[in-house]
Write a structure and sequence with these properties.
alpha+beta; Beta-lactamase; globular; single chain; eight-stranded antiparallel β-sheet; three-stranded antiparallel β-sheet
Length: about 325
Amino acid sequence: MEAVRQAFVEDPRGGSALVVIEDGRVVLDLHEGWRDAARTVPWDAETLVNVYSVGKPVIALAALLLVERGRIALDDPIARYWPQFQTHASVRQVLSHTAGLPTFPVPRPAESWAEWDVLCADLAAATPEWPPGTVAAEHALTYGHLVGELVRRVDGRSPGRFVAEEIAEPFRADLHFGLDAAGQARCAELEFDAPDWPRRNTGEPGSVKARAVENPAGARDLAVVNSALWRSATVPAVNLHATALGIARFYDELMRRPVGAMIATGQFTGVDQFIGGDPVTWGLGVQLEADGTWGMGGLGGNAGWADPGRGQAIAYVTRRLGDFSTVDRIEEALADS
């Protein structure tokens, strides 16, 4: 693991962590830097950080646990469980980013992130951009409300509580949606690698990506994402707060359970209209790679993934929002090790 360690330390981010679990045993647990931009509070094993889309598989698993228990069927329409939902999309299509609802349809201010029912009602009344099942476009901000409301309608518990009781606690994983005061006190303060970071991560004006990430306001605004409002809200698509160890344990546990094979079953391969570039393969909440690994990256350079062939679960988290260069080096070092 020395090459993996070197890949981590090569580019310190002023606050980041890496954990590798192999066959159930933690073989690498590293962190560096500080929790805060002023660099006064050292990063430690208890530091939580907002990992953006790395949280999508967590809320996807919440729904899949209900599938596993026979309470949800993948090919049922969402409206069977959520009668107000007007788009004729199936549970499978929502989980695989092919429901045609990559954007919130009503312009909303940042304060709306704390208004779960308002945003869910917007999605229930929305018109899909494409016939469901025909086009993939990562549901960058909408995914968590679509899946989370499905969980709430079927189970009765809020998405945050369901994840806490059914995933975080049994997995022994330090990951959370909707932090209390004690959790907020452990949070790292996000910052940009350069002032133009929001512009670099917006997409072309009018594109699916630009429209998806700009509404509601604030998901890439430091004043919002470092606020108590954001940290206490439940935004399962993009505001999981977790430790690197928590995310690695999530994947380690998934590889040991039948539901792990379910989440990593391919559903769509092709160009994703939000991501662009090369074709991707979506499972039921994770991206599948040609080398057999699967997981999810998060805006700014965070990532969590499973490598079943090696029995490894890997998580890298950072408070400095930049690119995926560190993750790329870690992947290369793991492949060579």
